[in-house]
Amino acid sequence: MGKYTSYTAGFKLKAGQYALEHGNRAASRHFGVGETSIRYWRDQEKKLKVTKKTRRAFRGAKTGRYPNVEKQLVRHMRELRQDGCAVSLDIVQTEARRIARAQGIKAKEFKASSGWTTRFMWRHGLALRRRTTLCQRLPAAHEDKVADFHSFVVN
C-alpha cells in the first residue's frame, strides 16, 4: 500500500463523530489514522456535511492574482473566437500584457509568462485548437491583396 491514503467525506465525518464521543486519540486508534488528521477533519466538519459523501478533497480551480485582467482577457478571447479568428498563445500573452498595463499593473509585477498563460487557460476551461484551413476567415482586404499579387506575377 502507498504512503498516502485519501478518505471520503463520509469516513471523515464518522471519524469526527467518534472523536467527539470518545476523544481524538481513541478515534485515531479506532480508524487507523493520525490524530492530527482527526483534528483537521473535526475543524472541517461544516464543509464536510454539505459536500458529497464520496468527495475526498477540497481542491479546484484557484483564482488568479489579477482577476480583472483575466475577466477582460476571457471576454476578448471569446470575441475573437466568435469572429472566427484563430487564437494563439502569443495573442493571449500580448493581450494580457496590454490589459495589465491599461490597469496600471507594472511590467515587473505581471509578465504573462507561458506558465501563467497555461494556468489561465486551465482556470477558465479554455484550450487552443490546432489551426485548420477550413472555417477560418481571411483578412478583410484579402481580395485586394490577391489581385495585387496576380498583377505582380503577370507583370
UniProtKB/TrEMBL annotation:
<keyword id="KW-0238">DNA-binding</keyword>
<dbReference type="Pfam" id="PF03221">
    <property type="entry name" value="HTH_Tnp_Tc5"/>
</dbReference>
<dbReference type="GO" id="GO:0005634">
    <property type="term" value="C:nucleus"/>
</dbReference>
<protein>
    <recommendedName>
        <fullName>HTH CENPB-type domain-containing protein</fullName>
    </recommendedName>
</protein>
<dbReference type="GO" id="GO:0003677">
    <property type="term" value="F:DNA binding"/>
</dbReference>
<feature type="domain" description="HTH CENPB-type">
    <location>
        <begin position="57"/>
        <end position="130"/>
    </location>
</feature>
<dbReference type="InterPro" id="IPR009057">
    <property type="entry name" value="Homeodomain-like_sf"/>
</dbReference>
<dbReference type="InterPro" id="IPR006600">
    <property type="entry name" value="HTH_CenpB_DNA-bd_dom"/>
</dbReference>
